[in-house]
Design goal:
Layout lengths: L3 H40 L5 H6 L3 H4 L5 E4 L5 E2 L9 E5 L17 H9 L3 E5 L12 H5 L4 E7 L36 E4 L10 H17 L6 E5 L13 E5 L16 H13 L5 E7 L2 H4 L15 H7 L7 H10 L15 H19 L2
Parallel strand pairs: 2-4, 3-4, 3-5, 5-9
Antiparallel strand pairs: 1-6, 7-8
Helix pairs in contact: 1-6, 4-11, 10-11
Length: about 375
């Protein structure tokens, strides 16, 4: 029969052996996790859409120059027009987050426009408030805005306004719109946006997927095809560490597949939209075409076969459209050395890009007012 002392001795040995196994297991886990932990802090949390889609590191492509935003939204973000606003923006992700929620860092261009003018601005996504149906809503009919801005990205120009296909193409002017609302600048406070910083709450899933994508990309030349990295002739366009590299969303290359007549019907569709919008004699239409990132930086791309895919400049030169030339103003700012006009980790504008767009819109409106 086992004595009590013998049982205690064996139990102590088992407990000590168990503790050794636990310590060894914890050591092995620590050895496995430590590199992932360190890599998490080195990569930095995802912030931009092209780094997220392409699995590139914010460490390399995150912006480092200050970015500013308003401390609270100056525009109203909604899904329908239900009361009077001075300005209605019907746009895409350059104007409103795809989620539809108000942005955490409100620096969309129309916030700058609202700040410069004091006008009330309502922002709708084109998928939530399709044109021309929006124009027949009771609130729009009874209390129409002074300005309707139709904003869309260049890369989808061939798909704009499918409901306005066919019918008469006319350049007839509608009734002269009413005067613009009075300018009462707000000068709202701004603050600096901080890019997300690594925390102790490690996203091991992100680190694991980054390592897989990086191994496939660097080791076998296999990519997911959502984002492409192009070389630049100068490192001075962006504040990111990889200043000589341009991350471009795949749809910026759609233009290479357009047929020669891809945009032939668009001027007529926009003309029909202008006639419908301005028929009430109170609302004026502006068309805001957001140049693709590849278009804006095309002259600096090393791979010259991608430098001239855009038809935007020619399209605007030959068609008399109510369209502020934000393409020219953005290109001019880039040529003058302003960094992060588009964010290096994103397909959208940085704060200065948004601000320049608002300035261009306002300048255009004021020039039309004085004619």
């Amino acid at each position: 029969m086992m004595s009590v002392n013998s049982f205690i001795s064996n139990s102590d040995f088992a407990t000590a052996e168990h503790r050794s196994y636990v310590r060894l297991l914890l050591l092995l886990i620590g050895v496995a996790i430590a590199p992932l932990w360190l890599l998490w802090f080195d990569l930095e949390p995802l912030a931009g859409d092209v780094t997220r889609l392409g699995w590139y590191a914010e460490r390399d492509f995150g912006w480092r120059a200050p970015q500013y935003y308003f401390t609270h939204p100056l525009s109203d973000y909604a899904t329908s027009y239900d009361r009077y606003h001075d300005v209605v923006v019907v746009g895409d992700s350059f104007s409103k987050e795809p989620s539809g929620d108000p942005p955490r860092h409100p620096n969309h261009w129309h916030n700058f426009l609202a700040d410069m003018t004091g006008w009330s601005v309502l922002v709708l996504r084109h998928s939530e408030a399709p044109l021309p149906e929006l124009l027949s809503r009771p609130a729009f009919v009874s209390s129409p805005p002074k300005i309707l801005i139709y904003e869309r990205a260049e890369r989808y120009m061939d798909q704009w306004l499918p409901r306005l296909q066919g019918g008469e193409c006319t350049d007839r002017d509608a009734q002269p719109p009413e005067p613009l609302p009075r300018l009462v600048p707000r000068r709202a406070p701004r603050t600096i946006i901080e890019r997300p910083k690594p925390t102790l709450d490690v996203n091991f899933g992100y680190v694991r997927r980054y390592l897989i994508h990086e191994a496939l990309r660097e080791g076998f030349g296999i990519d997911n095809g959502l984002v492409f990295k192009l070389g630049l002739t100068t490192p001075s366009l962006f504040s990111s560490a990889e200043g000589r590299q341009l991350l471009v969303y795949k749809d910026d290359f759609r233009k290479a597949q357009w047929k020669p007549d891809a945009l032939d019907g668009l001027p007529c569709r926009l003309s029909r939209l202008k006639t419908l919008v301005e028929a009430n004699g109170k609302t004026r239409l502006l068309v805001l075409i957001a140049p693709d990132k590849l278009t804006a930086y095309g002259r600096y791309v090393l791979q010259r076969q991608y430098a001239s895919l855009s038809r935007l400049e020619h399209f605007l030169d030959v068609n008399q459209l109510p369209a502020p030339r934000i393409d020219q103003r953005l290109s001019s700012a880039i040529a003058k050395g302003e960094v992060d006009i588009y964010l290096p980790d994103n397909t959208h504008w940085g704060y200065r890009g948004h601000e320049i767009v608002a300035e261009t819109v306002l300048d255009y409106l004021m020039s039309q007012q004085t004619r």
